[in-house]
Design goal:
Blueprint lengths: L3 H8 L6 E9 L2 E8 L4 E2 L6 E2 L2 E14 L2 E13 L9 E3 L14 H14 L1 H10 L6 H10 L10 E10 L3 E8 L5 E6 L3 H10 L5 E3 L4 H10 L4 E3 L2 H18 L1 H4 L9 H18 L4 H8 L3 H9 L21 H10 L5 H10 L6 H9 L12 H9 L7 H11 L3 H16 L6 H14 L3 H12 L1 H9 L5 H17 L4 H11 L34 E2 L11 H7 L7 E3 L2
The chain binds zinc ion (2 copies).
Length: about 575
């Protein structure tokens, strides 16, 4: 059997500091009437305890919904009179700390719920969701609430991660700073220039290690503000840049590894050959790159590209083919053409249709005319070829390993590229000896004819200390990049509403909960109900309920009376 008083205590446990006098069903809203306890309170001016009542006020606040309906609490609070002579405070209104804070119109536990929702969603999204949960909040409030959540303390970490993110891509950027060891967000500042970073580092001394990407601005800022700090470049970025260089090399050697695939021929290929010859001739006569560009009417970058190519074939590209419906039948078609070189296309079409080909005859004709049956192996794009070179060998399938072996042995340059990539991959496991090995790697990579890899090594040498630190120390910028990924989500959610201040606040709040400090599982204080026990009405957080009948129609006076602490006379109406 359920005791009404016990039930009231359970449902309104958040109001345990008050005496509930009445619960009224007013249709859409459930109105709870309550009052403060008749206890002495301390004067805020002098601290003297007083029980002298000067008058009464009513405060109205919303509480968490019950039964899917809104709950309004009307609390009668007392205005007290200070007994001390000479105290500045003559009368004061008593407060209900923990239940209803000063000036607030929401009971604390509802305020916590609203702020948790607004923290995740902010703005209109919260204003749309909360009414469905029985809480009325305007979209303006939903923007204001997250700004009121206090930020966690911004202690300066030993290992700082720094990175930029776009507020408006290409135009406006900001800098995010985090603790690179724990992922704790430390600060977000507008701008990403050297001056911005330098000013922050000077204002927040104590950083010993600075993790950054290859950005020159942050490196320079750290050199100015923290000359003793160790700068660490990011391993992922190093690998990414090497991957880009490798892709360009693979592209330049298209005609080596894609032997058999017909290259782009015709007018375009002729122009390429002609231009390469023109650039070569001018360069041999001692003309500079800029001079060539002016005389030939080509952009400087184009001239550089032609100049870098040791032969015109380096500028040839594998045609861009997409996978087609013919691909699965390639082997069969090759076999048939070998058996019967003059086989009619329509005959071949009939045969592969029987074998499940779903495409058109046009597609097959084009496939054959493009010469895609003539090559020894299926078409491979430079990007895919590079991916094979960059993938861990033990993660490749049998056929991928076969293709890789074919690519690697295509020419001495690609073989050298493959072996340098493998050596660099070994360096990515941090080890104290890696600084020396990096220098050896650079020397070895320069011995091969790989201009794009040479450009990568020049970049490495410009930032060699940070690169060496990245390969010897365990620190990296992964967590900063992770924060940036979440920032993008937040930005899309609020599309610039309320400006930088709210964005900064939401980034710094993150998904971390103030109570547990855990990033993954938010813990909300209201998720733990406080149980009350009959017979022990005032143990910690038990609600006081005065008077009335069982909510389920039972009347168990004996048990109910155990719970009653306040005076009789209250009522529960129409529940
Ligand atoms: Zn006083
Ligand atoms: Zn080659």
């Amino acid at each position: 059997m359920i005791d009404m008083a016990e039930l009231m205590g359970v449902v309104f446990s958040g109001l345990s500091a008050l005496v509930i006098e009445d619960v009224e069903d007013a249709g859409e809203v459930i109105v709870v009437r309550a009052r403060t306890r008749d206890e002495a309170v301390a004067c805020p001016g002098c601290g003297a305890e007083t029980a002298r009542v000067h008058g009464y006020h009513e405060r109205t606040a919303a509480d968490v919904p019950v039964d899917g309906r809104r709950v309004g609490v009307r609390v009668r609070v007392r205005r007290m009179r200070c007994p001390a002579l000479g105290c500045q405070v003559q009368t004061f209104r008593e407060q209900v700390p923990g239940v209803l804070e000063r000036y607030q119109r929401r009971i604390s536990r509802l305020a916590a719920q609203v702020s948790a929702v607004a923290r995740e969603l902010a703005g209109r999204a919260s204003a749309r969701l909360l009414p469905a949960l029985g809480v009325m909040v305007s979209r303006h409030t939903a923007l204001r609430v997250p700004l009121k959540i206090p930020l966690p303390g911004a202690a300066v970490p030993r290992v700082l991660g720094i990175d930029d993110f776009a507020l408006r891509r290409g135009l406006v950027y900001a800098t995010v700073l985090i603790d690179a060891e724990t992922g704790r967000r430390v600060d977000v500042v507008p701008g990403r220039t050297t001056d911005v970073a330098e000013a922050w580092l000077r204002d927040h001394p104590g950083v010993e290690v600075l993790c950054r990407d290859g950005s020159g601005a942050y490196g320079e800022a750290a050199r100015r503000a923290l000359p003793q700090a160790v700068q660490v470049s990011d391993r992922w970025h190093l690998w990414h840049l090497l991957g880009e260089a490798a892709r360009k090399e693979v592209l330049a050697h298209s005609c080596c590894w894609a032997k058999g695939t017909p290259m782009q021929e015709g007018k375009r290929a002729d122009t390429t050959r002609e231009r390469w010859q023109q650039v070569r001739d001018l360069r041999e006569k001692g003309a500079g790159l800029l001079d060539c560009s002016r005389r030939l009417g080509l952009s400087l970058n184009t001239v550089k590209r032609y100049d870098r190519a040791s032969e015109p074939e380096r500028l040839q590209r594998v045609p861009k083919y997409k996978p087609t419906l013919v691909d699965p039948h390639r082997d069969y078609l090759r076999k048939r053409r070998a058996e019967e070189p003059g086989a009619a296309v329509q005959q071949l079409l009939r045969e592969i249709r029987e074998r499940g080909y779903q495409g058109s005859s046009n597609l097959l004709v084009r496939y054959i005319n493009q010469g895609r049956l003539d090559g020894d192996r299926p078409h491979l794009s430079p990007r895919r070829a590079t991916r094979l070179l960059l993938t861990r060998p033990d993660r490749l399938t049998g056929s991928q390993q076969e293709t890789l072996a074919h690519i690697e042995t295509a020419c001495p340059e690609i073989s050298a590229l493959a072996s340098h990539i493998r050596d660099f991959a070994d360096l990515l496991v941090p080890d104290p000896g890696n600084a020396g090995r990096l220098q050896e790697w650079i020397t070895a990579a320069r011995a091969a004819d790989l201009p794009h890899v040479h450009a990568f090594t020049r970049g490495l040498e410009l930032d060699i200390q940070a690169a060496a630190a990245a390969l010897t120390m365990p620190f990296h910028n992964g967590r900063t990049e992770g924060v940036n990924t979440k920032t993008k989500m937040i930005k899309r959610q609020m599309y610039g509403r309320a400006g930088f201040a709210l964005l900064r606040h939401r980034i710094l709040l993150g998904l971390r909960n103030v109570t547990t400090g855990s990033e993954t599982e938010p813990h909300y204080p209201w998720s733990q109900p406080r149980h009350i026990c009959p017979g022990q009405p005032d143990r910690g957080g038990s609600g006081q309920v005065t008077g009335s009948r069982s909510l389920l129609g039972f009347d168990d006076d004996a048990r109910r009376n155990e719970c009653l602490v306040g005076g009789p006379g209250g009522r529960i109406s129409r529940l």
